[in-house]
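Students often ask why inverse folding is considered easier than folding. One informal answer: many sequences map to the same fold, so there is more than one right answer. In these notes we will look at a single instance of the problem. The structure comes first.
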């Protein structure tokens, strides 16, 4: 029984760690999910295997009756020359409507989605991280942002302890002809 209990505790801690907030990062205190829904363009990111080689990346959020958000991430695979899409669900973590959500694209497994900057009241620019500083996204309502907006993002990310040496600025231009 002790082994079963230890495995259950370890599994719970692992799953909680994946939905936690990185030390020193504070999610925005209030997120209006209705205003957040719609299309966001990925301006920059720290790359991961699930997005490797993707350009023209967008995230579409749609508010559901239960308060969760359906998430459709879409990007163009430049090697395969085809669109790639993943559908998931985002839910608020804990009570309230802070910028701390958990998102799942793979059944019962969730990962943190932490909005630590959102231009309020406009909801035009957002800075997102995961459960640690290996995850970072800069999202905008438009496919391009000003140099000043990019500089503000970089400054804030560096101040929050992100290593930007591997930062990718996402190509949001037209899809190349075949």
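Output (designed amino acids):
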């Amino acid at each position: 029984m002790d082994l079963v209990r230890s495995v259950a505790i370890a599994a719970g801690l692992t799953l909680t760690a994946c939905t936690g907030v990185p030390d020193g990062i504070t999610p925005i205190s209030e997120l209006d999910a209705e205003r957040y829904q719609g299309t966001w363009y990925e301006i920059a990111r720290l790359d991961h295997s699930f997005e490797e080689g993707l350009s023209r990346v967008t995230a579409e959020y749609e508010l559901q009756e239960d308060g969760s958000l359906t998430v459709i991430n879409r990007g163009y695979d430049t090697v395969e020359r085809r669109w790639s899409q993943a559908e998931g669900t985002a839910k608020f973590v804990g009570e309230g409507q802070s910028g701390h959500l958990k998102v799942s694209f793979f059944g019962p497994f969730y990962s943190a989605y932490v909005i630590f900057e959102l231009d309020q009241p406009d909801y035009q620019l957002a800075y997102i991280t995961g459960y640690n500083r290996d995850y970072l996204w800069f999202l905008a309502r438009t496919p391009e942002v000003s140099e000043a907006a990019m500089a503000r993002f970089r400054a804030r990310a560096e101040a929050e302890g992100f290593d930007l040496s591997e930062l990718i600025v996402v190509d949001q231009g037209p899809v190349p002809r075949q």
